[in-house]
Protein backbone atom coordinates (compact mmCIF):
# COMPACT_ATOMS: atom_id res chain seq x y z
CA UNK A 1 0.00 0.00 0.00
CA UNK A 2 1.30 3.44 -0.98
CA UNK A 3 2.01 6.29 1.40
CA UNK A 4 -0.97 8.05 -0.19
CA UNK A 5 -3.24 5.13 0.73
CA UNK A 6 -2.03 5.10 4.32
CA UNK A 7 -2.51 8.86 4.60
CA UNK A 8 -6.03 8.66 3.14
CA UNK A 9 -7.00 5.97 5.67
CA UNK A 10 -5.56 8.03 8.50
CA UNK A 11 -7.51 11.16 7.47
CA UNK A 12 -10.74 9.51 6.30
CA UNK A 13 -12.78 9.93 9.50
CA UNK A 14 -11.68 13.55 9.78
CA UNK A 15 -12.53 14.26 6.11
CA UNK A 16 -16.01 12.75 6.43
CA UNK A 17 -16.88 14.15 9.87
CA UNK A 18 -18.70 17.17 8.45
CA UNK A 19 -20.96 15.25 6.03
CA UNK A 20 -21.64 12.58 8.66
CA UNK A 21 -22.78 15.15 11.23
CA UNK A 22 -24.80 17.06 8.60
CA UNK A 23 -27.04 14.11 7.76
CA UNK A 24 -25.04 11.29 6.21
CA UNK A 25 -24.96 9.33 9.47
CA UNK A 26 -28.74 9.56 9.76
CA UNK A 27 -29.12 8.24 6.20
CA UNK A 28 -26.87 5.30 7.04
CA UNK A 29 -28.93 4.50 10.11
CA UNK A 30 -32.25 4.57 8.24
CA UNK A 31 -30.90 2.43 5.42
CA UNK A 32 -29.42 -0.21 7.71
CA UNK A 33 -32.72 -0.73 9.48
CA UNK A 34 -33.42 -2.95 6.46
CA UNK A 35 -30.40 -5.22 7.03
CA UNK A 36 -31.39 -8.70 8.15
CA UNK A 37 -30.29 -12.33 8.13
CA UNK A 38 -26.76 -13.08 6.94
CA UNK A 39 -25.30 -9.69 6.02
CA UNK A 40 -22.26 -8.79 3.92
CA UNK A 41 -20.94 -5.23 3.83
CA UNK A 42 -18.41 -4.48 1.11
CA UNK A 43 -15.70 -1.83 1.49
CA UNK A 44 -16.30 -1.33 5.19
CA UNK A 45 -13.66 1.41 5.39
CA UNK A 46 -13.15 2.58 8.95
CA UNK A 47 -16.45 1.14 10.18
CA UNK A 48 -18.92 4.02 9.86
CA UNK A 49 -21.86 1.59 9.56
CA UNK A 50 -21.01 -0.59 12.56
CA UNK A 51 -23.29 1.13 15.12
CA UNK A 52 -26.38 0.72 12.94
CA UNK A 53 -26.71 -3.05 12.51
CA UNK A 54 -29.71 -4.21 14.52
CA UNK A 55 -30.94 -7.41 16.09
CA UNK A 56 -32.38 -8.68 12.78
CA UNK A 57 -28.80 -9.28 11.62
CA UNK A 58 -27.96 -12.92 12.34
CA UNK A 59 -24.34 -12.80 11.14
CA UNK A 60 -22.21 -9.92 9.87
CA UNK A 61 -19.29 -10.18 7.45
CA UNK A 62 -17.39 -7.09 6.29
CA UNK A 63 -14.84 -6.90 3.50
CA UNK A 64 -12.21 -4.20 3.08
CA UNK A 65 -9.49 -4.55 0.43
CA UNK A 66 -6.99 -1.97 1.70
CA UNK A 67 -4.82 -2.88 4.68
CA UNK A 68 -4.67 0.59 6.33
CA UNK A 69 -8.47 0.84 6.29
CA UNK A 70 -8.81 -2.78 7.38
CA UNK A 71 -6.66 -2.15 10.47
CA UNK A 72 -8.88 0.74 11.57
CA UNK A 73 -11.99 -1.31 10.85
CA UNK A 74 -10.67 -4.16 12.99
CA UNK A 75 -10.09 -1.83 15.93
CA UNK A 76 -13.67 -0.53 15.77
CA UNK A 77 -15.08 -4.02 15.28
CA UNK A 78 -13.44 -5.19 18.52
CA UNK A 79 -15.57 -2.64 20.37
CA UNK A 80 -18.86 -4.10 19.09
CA UNK A 81 -21.03 -6.47 21.10
CA UNK A 82 -21.60 -8.82 18.16
CA UNK A 83 -19.10 -11.12 16.49
CA UNK A 84 -17.98 -9.74 13.11
CA UNK A 85 -16.07 -11.60 10.42
CA UNK A 86 -13.56 -9.32 8.70
CA UNK A 87 -12.19 -10.32 5.29
CA UNK A 88 -9.58 -8.41 3.30
CA UNK A 89 -10.89 -8.78 -0.26
CA UNK A 90 -11.98 -6.58 -3.18
CA UNK A 91 -15.61 -6.43 -4.30
CA UNK A 92 -14.59 -7.83 -7.70
CA UNK A 93 -13.37 -11.10 -6.14
CA UNK A 94 -15.46 -12.02 -3.12
CA UNK A 95 -14.25 -15.26 -1.48
CA UNK A 96 -17.74 -16.55 -0.71
CA UNK A 97 -19.97 -19.22 -2.17
CA UNK A 98 -23.00 -18.30 -4.25
CA UNK A 99 -26.15 -17.41 -2.30
CA UNK A 100 -24.22 -16.95 0.95
CA UNK A 101 -25.96 -13.77 2.12
CA UNK A 102 -29.49 -12.42 2.56
CA UNK A 103 -28.42 -8.76 2.53
CA UNK A 104 -25.47 -6.92 0.97
CA UNK A 105 -24.61 -3.38 2.02
CA UNK A 106 -22.67 -0.87 -0.11
CA UNK A 107 -22.21 2.69 1.16
CA UNK A 108 -19.92 5.02 -0.80
CA UNK A 109 -18.10 2.06 -2.33
CA UNK A 110 -19.37 1.56 -5.90
CA UNK A 111 -17.84 4.91 -6.83
CA UNK A 112 -14.37 3.59 -6.07
CA UNK A 113 -14.27 -0.09 -7.05
CA UNK A 114 -11.93 -0.69 -9.97
CA UNK A 115 -14.54 -2.62 -11.96
CA UNK A 116 -18.10 -1.64 -11.11
CA UNK A 117 -19.72 -4.14 -13.48
CA UNK A 118 -17.73 -7.07 -12.08
CA UNK A 119 -18.39 -5.92 -8.51
CA UNK A 120 -22.15 -5.84 -9.03
CA UNK A 121 -22.03 -9.27 -10.67
CA UNK A 122 -20.29 -10.55 -7.54
CA UNK A 123 -22.88 -8.95 -5.25
CA UNK A 124 -25.63 -10.61 -7.23
CA UNK A 125 -23.78 -13.95 -7.10
CA UNK A 126 -23.35 -14.02 -3.32
CA UNK A 127 -26.93 -12.92 -2.61
CA UNK A 128 -29.68 -15.45 -2.11
CA UNK A 129 -32.44 -15.33 -4.77
CA UNK A 130 -34.58 -12.36 -3.83
CA UNK A 131 -31.89 -11.09 -1.45
CA UNK A 132 -31.48 -7.35 -1.00
CA UNK A 133 -28.75 -4.87 -1.85
CA UNK A 134 -28.87 -1.78 0.38
CA UNK A 135 -26.99 1.07 -1.28
CA UNK A 136 -25.97 4.63 -0.52
CA UNK A 137 -23.81 6.07 -3.28
CA UNK A 138 -22.90 9.43 -4.78
CA UNK A 139 -23.51 9.37 -8.52
CA UNK A 140 -23.60 11.17 -11.85
CA UNK A 141 -25.92 14.15 -11.82
CA UNK A 142 -29.15 14.32 -13.84
CA UNK A 143 -28.30 17.97 -14.50
CA UNK A 144 -26.28 18.04 -17.78
CA UNK A 145 -24.26 21.05 -16.64
CA UNK A 146 -23.22 19.40 -13.39
CA UNK A 147 -22.54 16.12 -15.21
CA UNK A 148 -20.18 17.89 -17.60
CA UNK A 149 -18.25 19.30 -14.65
CA UNK A 150 -18.15 15.84 -13.11
CA UNK A 151 -16.54 14.51 -16.28
CA UNK A 152 -14.04 17.37 -16.35
CA UNK A 153 -13.08 17.02 -12.69
CA UNK A 154 -13.19 13.25 -12.36
CA UNK A 155 -9.46 12.80 -12.86
CA UNK A 156 -8.68 15.33 -10.15
CA UNK A 157 -11.27 13.76 -7.86
CA UNK A 158 -9.78 10.30 -8.37
CA UNK A 159 -6.38 11.66 -7.39
CA UNK A 160 -7.56 13.56 -4.32
CA UNK A 161 -10.13 11.01 -3.11
CA UNK A 162 -8.01 7.89 -3.62
CA UNK A 163 -9.72 6.48 -6.71
CA UNK A 164 -13.25 7.79 -6.18
CA UNK A 165 -15.18 8.46 -9.41
CA UNK A 166 -17.73 11.28 -9.19
CA UNK A 167 -19.44 10.59 -12.55
CA UNK A 168 -20.68 6.98 -12.43
CA UNK A 169 -24.29 6.19 -13.35
CA UNK A 170 -24.50 3.67 -10.54
CA UNK A 171 -28.28 3.21 -10.46
CA UNK A 172 -28.26 2.23 -14.14
CA UNK A 173 -25.39 -0.17 -13.44
CA UNK A 174 -27.34 -1.82 -10.61
CA UNK A 175 -30.27 -2.39 -12.96
CA UNK A 176 -27.98 -3.67 -15.71
CA UNK A 177 -26.55 -6.24 -13.29
CA UNK A 178 -30.00 -7.81 -13.05
CA UNK A 179 -31.28 -6.22 -9.86
CA UNK A 180 -34.79 -4.82 -9.49
CA UNK A 181 -34.95 -1.43 -7.79
CA UNK A 182 -37.43 -1.76 -4.92
CA UNK A 183 -37.00 1.80 -3.69
CA UNK A 184 -34.67 4.72 -4.34
CA UNK A 185 -34.37 8.22 -2.94
CA UNK A 186 -32.49 10.97 -4.72
CA UNK A 187 -30.63 13.30 -2.41
CA UNK A 188 -27.41 15.18 -1.81
CA UNK A 189 -24.21 14.35 0.01
CA UNK A 190 -24.17 17.08 2.66
CA UNK A 191 -21.27 19.52 2.89
CA UNK A 192 -19.75 18.17 -0.32
CA UNK A 193 -18.65 20.09 -3.44
CA UNK A 194 -21.43 20.30 -6.06
CA UNK A 195 -19.74 17.83 -8.41
CA UNK A 196 -19.80 15.02 -5.80
CA UNK A 197 -23.11 15.97 -4.17
CA UNK A 198 -25.75 13.92 -6.12
CA UNK A 199 -26.70 10.93 -3.96
CA UNK A 200 -28.91 7.86 -4.22
CA UNK A 201 -30.12 5.77 -1.29
CA UNK A 202 -32.19 2.66 -1.84
CA UNK A 203 -32.87 -1.03 -1.94
CA UNK A 204 -32.43 -3.40 -4.89
CA UNK A 205 -33.54 -7.03 -5.06
CA UNK A 206 -31.62 -9.89 -6.62
CA UNK A 207 -33.48 -12.05 -9.16
CA UNK A 208 -35.49 -14.92 -7.73
CA UNK A 209 -34.68 -17.23 -10.65
CA UNK A 210 -31.40 -18.74 -11.79
CA UNK A 211 -30.95 -16.67 -14.93
Question: How would you briefly describe this protein structure?
Answer:
By secondary structure, this protein is an alpha/beta fold.
Adjacency order of strands in the biggest sheet: 3-2-1-4-5-7-6
Number of helices: 5
The CATH top-level class label of one domain:
Alpha Beta
Shape: globular
What is the residue-mean pLDDT, rounded to a whole number? Answer: 95
**SSE class:** alpha/beta
Helix content percent band: 25-40%
CATH superfamily of one domain: Vaccinia Virus protein VP39
CATH fold description of one domain: Rossmann fold
Roughly how many Å apart are the termini? 38 Å
Count of DSSP strands: 7
CATH architecture classification name of one domain: 3-Layer(aba) Sandwich
**Rg from Cα:** 16 Å
The arrangement of helices and strands along the chain is HEEHEEHEHHEE
Strand content: 15-25%
Instruction: Return residue spans where pLDDT drops below 50 for at least 5 consecutive residues.
Output: none
Q: Give the biggest sheet.
A: 7 strands, mixed
Question: What are the main properties of this structure?
Answer:
211 residues, globular, Rossmann fold, 5 helices, 36% helix, alpha/beta
Describe this structure in words.
- Strand 2, helix 2 and strand 3 form a beta-alpha-beta unit.
- 38% of the residues are buried.
- The protein has a seven-stranded mixed sheet, with helices on both faces.
- 36% of the residues lie in helices and 25% in strands.
- It has a domain of 131 residues: 3-Layer(aba) Sandwich (Rossmann fold).
- The radius of gyration is 16 Å and the shape is globular.
- It is of the alpha/beta class and 211 residues long.
- It has five helices and seven strands, in the order αββαββαβααββ.
Amino acid sequence: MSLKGRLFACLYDWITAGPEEAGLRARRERLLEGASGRVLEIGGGTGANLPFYGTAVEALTITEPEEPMARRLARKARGQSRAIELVQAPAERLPFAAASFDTVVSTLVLCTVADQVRSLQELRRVLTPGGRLLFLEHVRSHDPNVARWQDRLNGINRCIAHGCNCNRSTLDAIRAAGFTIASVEQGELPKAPPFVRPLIVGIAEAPTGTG
